[in-house]
Design a protein that fits this description.
Blueprint lengths: L1 H11 L19 E7 L2 E12 L3 E10 L5 E11 L4 E10 L2 E10 L2 E8 L2 E8 L5 E3 L8 H8 L6 E7 L3 E17 L2 E14 L2 E10 L4 E6 L4 E5 H4 L4 E3 L7 E6 L4 E7 L18 E7 L10 E2 L2 E2 H11 L3 E5 L16 H16 L4 E11 L2 H10 L7 E5 L6 H14 L5 H20 L10 H5 L2 H8 L2 H5 L6 E6 L8 H11 L7 E6 L28 H13 L10
């Protein structure tokens, strides 16, 4: 739900580190405007300013979030001393037409808050640590600036504390840091990307924060809640994150249905800028289209700091293929809207990319393969089934093999099992998940689900995911199929690979189908110890295992008849 997600996002800003010596003497930065998105829809904006003085720091901001949040921030201000110990906070806001003012002072390990609503005041005293980042109980994103500044000197990994005004302290962990670059209309912006984990009562929540090299906030994201807060220039459609680039990478624009998809075409380093078909100076290239699944990952399929598609594209291009990875509709630099998109719609987008490649003189139209990753396996299967004459081969990597509803329930059960909950509460959560699925699929029974769940779950994509049956779709796939799975994938366990290959081999018309199970890799396709999602942020090796392209490349070359004349199918 939106209010829960926004409140949850605010908790992330509690991570903090000690101020560097002399930081308070830095020039005062200008005010910055941020844009707030939920599920791809712009909710509003906020302006934030950080002032450094000889005595410490003052963070302030104001802004507005539209319905259904309906929050107007008149003023949010927090004061810290030079060592980032909080001195005081004041929040003046109107939430859904009701004004409130909260004033908090910090002294002797306590936070004393005076909360005024409807002309009546109440008091609350909480025990606090010496130097938590102070956050309001609602979605005021100015506080994120303190987090960005303090992360400059925070160790990694780190266990940190934060304080939510009038509520209490929370535990925050900084688990990973990496360098990334944003390409904006005004030029490149170098940044550091931090992976954060919040331990809340219902379990850990993962988040990401980007800051520039001066410690100013650029972007903040909670993927599980579809929340994103970005500096205005970083939020622009023309901006993208550049992670791995090859010398002859080409930015491409693909015409879809009423909008354009933006992507990157990677080719072998030896390939000319524009090879030709018959009559050209160089042979046309076999091509691979990488298809992503659910979530808000961009064309690089960056998950927990692992750019899965960027790395796969490089390995496949080195092997002699032209490789396309693209931003999903409504994300990154692609147009269109994601909130009403189903798995079938995303399959149409993948077919649009195939059609684009078939028209290029440097691509062999008879040798184009789809590679679906994760839930993108569902999308790639649909695309292949609907493009029998245009797609020559289909590979499914770490893809689900069960019905979507069974997959989601399996993942939820695994999460519940890892929580220290009484048996009765575990059963309640299972039953709630079942009611939620029924409501999403049928459109009825929402009155049996707690308020707020519908905002997150009642989407076209989730409904199409729950209803998807890979066995039925596989019956319509007329291409050779390769299934690649990691044996310690805990997000989509290895048994799903067995289900997929069983369905592929059960097709009425005998068609080639192969399964490769790779030892010791997780769902991100990188070497791991346990394969559990809570291990992602601390993985020492963030490179896709070479065993993955080693499985894909020979099969693709053989199936697409690379090095042989004539059509691939």
């Amino acid at each position: 739900m939106i209010r829960r997600a926004l409140a949850l996002a605010a908790l992330i800003a509690a991570a903090a580190g000690p101020a560097a010596e002399g930081q308070a003497q830095q020039p005062e930065p200008a005010a910055v405007r941020f844009v707030v998105f939920m599920a791809g829809r712009q909710l509003g904006f906020e302006r934030a300013q950080v002032r450094a003085t000889t005595d410490g720091w003052t963070l302030s901001g104001s802004g507005r979030l539209a319905d259904p949040v309906d929050l107007r921030t008149g003023q949010f201000q927090v004061r810290y001393d030079r060592d980032w110990r909080p001195l005081g906070a004041e929040i003046s806001a109107t939430l859904q037409g009701e004004p409130s003012v909260t004033k908090t002072t910090f002294a002797n390990g306590s936070a004393t808050s005076e909360i005024t609503r409807r002309g009546k005041s109440s008091w609350k005293v909480d025990a606090v640590s010496a130097d938590p980042v102070v956050l309001p109980p609602k979605a005021f994103f100015s506080a994120f600036e303190a987090l960005a500044l303090r992360l400059r000197t925070a160790p990694v990994p780190a266990a940190l504390r934060g304080y939510i005004v009038g509520q209490g302290e929370i535990a925050i962990a900084v688990t990973a840091v990496g360098d990334e670059r944003f390409q904006t209309m005004d030029g490149a912006v170098d940044s550091r990307r931090y992976t954060l984990t919040i331990e809340e009562s219902s379990g850990p929540v993962e988040a990401e924060l980007w800051a520039n090299l001066e410690g100013r906030l650029l972007r903040f994201r909670v993927p599980a809640n579809a929340l994103e807060v970005s500096r205005e220039d970083v939020a622009a459609v023309s901006t993208r994150v550049e992670r791995l680039a090859r010398p002859n990478d080409e930015a491409i624009t693909v015409a879809a249905f009423g909008f354009n998809l933006a992507g990157t075409l990677s080719k072998p380093e030896s390939a000319p800028a524009a090879a030709g078909r018959a009559g050209g100076k160089a042979p046309a290239l076999p091509a691979v289209v990488l298809v992503s699944g659910g979530g808000f990952a961009d064309r690089d399929e960056n998950v927990a700091g692992v750019p899965v598609f960027a790395q796969l594209a490089g390995a496949l291009a080195d092997a002699g293929f032209a490789v396309v990875r693209y931003d999903k509709r409504g994300l990154g630099q692609s147009g269109g809207r994601s909130e009403s998109a189903t798995a079938g719609d995303y399959a149409e987008d993948a077919r649009a990319v195939v059609r684009h490649l078939r028209k290029r003189r440097d691509i062999d139209p008879r040798r184009i393969a789809l590679v679906g990753y994760g839930e993108g396996g569902f999308v790639a299967m649909l695309a292949a089934a609907g493009a029998k004459d245009d797609v020559a081969a289909l590979a499914l990597v770490a893809a689900p093999g069960s019905k979507g509803s069974d997959l989601v329930m399996e993942q939820q059960l695994r999460l519940i099992e890892k929580m220290a909950l009484p048996d009765a509460e575990r059963q309640e959560r299972v039953e709630l998940q079942e009611r939620l699925h029924h409501a999403v699929i049928t459109g009825t029974g929402w009155d049996t689900v707690p308020p707020g769940y519908r905002e997150q779950a009642d989407t076209a994509w989730f409904r199409s995911l729950l209803l998807f049956d890979p066995a039925r779709v596989m019956e319509k796939v007329r291409q050779p199929v390769l299934v690649v799975h990691g044996d310690i994938d805990r997000q989509v366990p290895a048994r799903h690979g067995a289900l997929l290959i069983e369905a592929a081999r059960a097709r009425k018309k005998p068609l080639p189908a192969a399964l490769v199970t790779i030892q010791g890799i997780n769902h991100l396709l990188v070497p791991a110890a346990t394969g559990e999602p809570d291990e992602y942020a601390t993985l020492p090796d963030r490179r896709v295992s070479p065993k993955v392209p080693e499985a894909l490349v020979p099969w693709l070359k053989d199936t697409l008849h690379v090095g042989a004349a004539g059509p691939a199918h």
